[in-house]
Amino acid sequence: MYKNTKKALEIILKEEYDKENPLQSFTHLDLGNQLLTIPKGETILYQGDSAEYFYILLSGHTVIMNQISFSTNDIIDYVEPPHILGLMEYINKNPFYTAFVVADTACVLFRVNAKEFMDFIQQDAKLCYQALIITAHIASSNMDRAETHRIFPTKDILGHYLYKQACYKLPYTCPLTRKGLANKLNINLRTLYRYLDYMEKHNYITLHKGKIIINQEQMEQLSLRYGDVII
Questions:
Q1: Using CA atoms, how far apart are residues 163 and 35, in angstroms rounded to an integer?
Q2: pLDDT digits (tens, 9 = 90+) for 155-185
Q3: Integer Cα distance of 197 and 194 in angstroms
Q4: Ordered alpha helix ranges (H), 42-166
Q5: What is the number of alpha carbons within 13 Å of residue 88 lying toward its C-beta?
Q6: Distances (CA, A) of 11 to 26, 103, 109, 214
Q7: Across the chain, what does the average pLDDT equal?
Q8: Whole-angstrom Cα distance, residue 38 to residue 212?
């Protein structure tokens, strides 16, 4: 099985398989349940599940979704081959998948243990190069999406940022000026002031002498809203 997995990866990463009928390209290899055919509408990955496998998309299209209760749009991205689902989680050392992946059309995927995949590419320069090309493609797609689409309402970009910063130390005092915070989060300064007033009114923060302060009680309030968010 080990040799068959490596041979399959060589074919996949070099894109030497029939993209119209991927299954036909691997009939000479005994791959067991590593080759998956997923019908349209079925969930491929579940957000929060252990990220021990990569799923390499060979054909079809998928929808990547992040399920957040207050988000106005759960869809993060649409993905087509070449793509390695789960790769970015591994690179960022996330032990779980950070999004749902749903088949937008019928899909064929190749499943491989993440650590086994890394062993293969570390031992083979050509495979490593092909994997880097796909990684670059994924990173480029993610950056394009980040520039054109946000999964948070603007108000929650601010709230989530302050919550994450306060996780490190309580009480937390934001060191940034209002202008610095607005620039960092790409929020209009006047809008930022309005959101800060809203957050103070709802006991998420305290505004005192120009400083943004979060105490234990407010951290608990923020945690109720942002604590279960997976990004």
A1: 41
A2: 888 999 999 999 988 999 999 999 989 988 8
A3: 5
A4: 87-91, 114-123, 125-148, 154-166
A5: 17
A6: 9, 23, 13, 53
A7: 88
A8: 49
Which of 5-19, 103-117, 129-143 is the least confident region?
129-143
CB-based contact 231:157 (threshold 8 Å):
no
- Residues linked to residue 83 through DSSP beta bridges, in sequence order: 57
Coil/strand/helix, residue 48: coil
Instruction: Determine the Cα–Cα distance for residues 38 and 108; give it in Å rounded to an integer.
Output: 6
At 73, is the pLDDT very low, low, confident or very high (cuts 50, 70, 90)?
low
Strand partners, 101: 45, 64
Q: What is the rounded CA–CA span in Å between residue 29 and residue 167?
A: 49
Phi, psi of 105 (to 5 degrees): -135, 175
Largest separation between any pair of C-alpha atoms in the chain:
72
Q: Is the pLDDT of residue 138 over 60?
A: yes
Q: Which amino acid is at 115?
A: K
- Tallying the residues shown for the chain, one arrives at 231
SS3 156: helix
- What is the distance between the alpha carbons of residues 98 and 145, in angstroms, rounded to a whole number? 16
Amino acid 148: pLDDT:
42
Q: Are 143 and 149 in contact (CB under 8 A)?
A: no
Sheet holding 100-103, edge to edge: 43-45, 100-103, 62-65, 75-79
pLDDT digits (tens, 9 = 90+) for 187-231: 889 999 999 999 999 999 999 999 999 999 999 999 999 988 766
- Could you give the CA distance from residue 91 to residue 58 in angstroms, rounded to a whole number? 21
